[in-house]
Amino acid sequence: MSNLAIAAIRRFHYYLSYKKSFNLVIIFGLCSVLPSIQAADFKVIHAGELLSIAGEKSTKQQSILIKDGKITAIKKGYIDLAADQITANDTLEYIDLKNSFVMSGLMDMHVHLQGELGPNNDSESLRMSDADVAMKSAYFANKTLLAGFTTVRDLGAKPEQIYALRDAVNIGWIPGPRIIASGGVSVTGGHGDVDGKSPDLLDMLTSKTICDGPFDCRRATRRAIKYGADVIKITSTGGVLSDTNTGTGQQMANDELKEVIDAAHALGRKVASHAHAAEGINAALRAGVDSIEHGSYANKESIKLFKKSGAYLVPTLLAGDTVVQMAKAEGGFMSDAIKAKAIRVGHDMQNNFSSAYKAGVKIAFGTDSGVSHHGDNAKEAILMSQGGMSNQDILVSATINGADLIDMSASLGTLEQGKQADIIAMKSSPLDNISALLDVHFVMKSGSVHKQ
Ligand SMILES: [Zn+2]
């Protein structure tokens, strides 16, 4: 049954439970219909080379058995499903990936699905309606999925729009990766706040989760969660693209960081902190943050804190690379101050990544796509490889580590019995050459084929 049909039935059930006056005859009537439409959906993938668990050895000639979106077994050889395992109402499809390398769907822990950086950003933000932005986000979500990214964490968007996009994908209204959507909490005038506009516009555009002082930041965090945040995104330091004179130093005070992180954890949410300068990285790590985004100027103390706390570094090398190229291009939309900042920080990001990786910091794959083009997410892997990371570790960072960071290891990150059938395929092995990830030709998410 399609996700849409399931959603429709769920909604109908909800309607029935809501309308208490509805008589039971209709409920019984519906229930008597349900068994006949609860047919199972079987799929069998014949994989030429299979990497079920990144970090372990791949195996040749395997079959992945899938029922209703979940993996039921992985078996040696190209097997057929026994006739007595399916009934007349069930559907069964064989998928031939005998000439492909097959692995778990990729996970990008840092995207911005609502837009792409470019010269028209400012005028678009004033011209486009929320509905326009939602349509554009849906387009970018699909591009991301077709590139092999079956799960993403969106770390910065207009909250109502990204929550709606996440929910629409989950229901099955539109194709897209599974979205872990953030609510942003930032201080007045900080990197997560709006700038560079007239005072009236700034008043209109300022988010209700901009906060100052520990108690106000506790309120902002709880508010973000109330309205639908899966994860809290904070900006403990300045950023590359915000036109403030504060550079990339610490912006959120220690007491504000602590309050946000404690309030989020108390309500079961993790916290991701954008951070460039070491003092901001270290303050966020000391306050108990779950991931540091960018982490450009991590120092020796940061490495110690990373390892002590178990927090992840999400390097976003692609963002660094993209802004350097944009800053060096003729003309462009960046002010001279931002250009200088972009070139400096972009270069430093790559060096920091190499030393953090060598020191054994846990790394989760993340691109900051939206700075770069959506659908180009796998280019991050090339930059990670250039930074000295092994191909095997890159695949771990983009599967197992992503799942761990979003607390979904029980259902995502590897191809094993009971897990979601999030499966991609490419022509050659990324273990031999990581650029194979750029050419994903098959994408399945929860058992539904999106690209073949
Ligand atoms: Zn970002």
3D structure, described in words:
The protein is an alpha/beta fold. It has three domains: 3-37; 41-105 and 414-451, Urease, subunit C, domain 1, CATH 2.30.40; 106-405, Metal-dependent hydrolases (TIM Barrel, Alpha-Beta Barrel), CATH 3.20.20. It is built from 15 helices and 15 strands. Helix 4 (130-146) packs across helix 5, helix 9 (278-286) runs parallel beside helix 10 and helix 11 packs antiparallel against helix 12 (336-358). The longest helix has 23 residues, at 336-358. The two termini are 20 Å apart. Zinc ion is lined by residues 110, 112, 155-156, 368.
| SSE arrangement, N to C | HHEEEEEHHEHEHEHEHEHEHEHHHHHEEE
Q: Mean of residue pLDDT?
A: 89
Low-confidence stretches: 6-35
CATH superfamily of the largest domain: Metal-dependent hydrolases
Question: For the report, how would you describe the main beta sheet?
Answer: 8 strands, parallel
Distance between the termini: 20 Å
Tell me which ligands are bound.
zinc ion
Which structural category do the helix and sheet elements fall into?
Answer: alpha/beta
Number of strands: 15
Radius of gyration: 23 Å
The geometry reads as globular
Helix content: 25-40%
Total helical elements: 15
CATH architecture of the largest domain: Alpha-Beta Barrel
Under CATH at level 1, the class of the largest domain stands as Alpha Beta
Number of structural units classed as domains = 3
User: Could you name the CATH topology of the largest domain?
Assistant: TIM Barrel
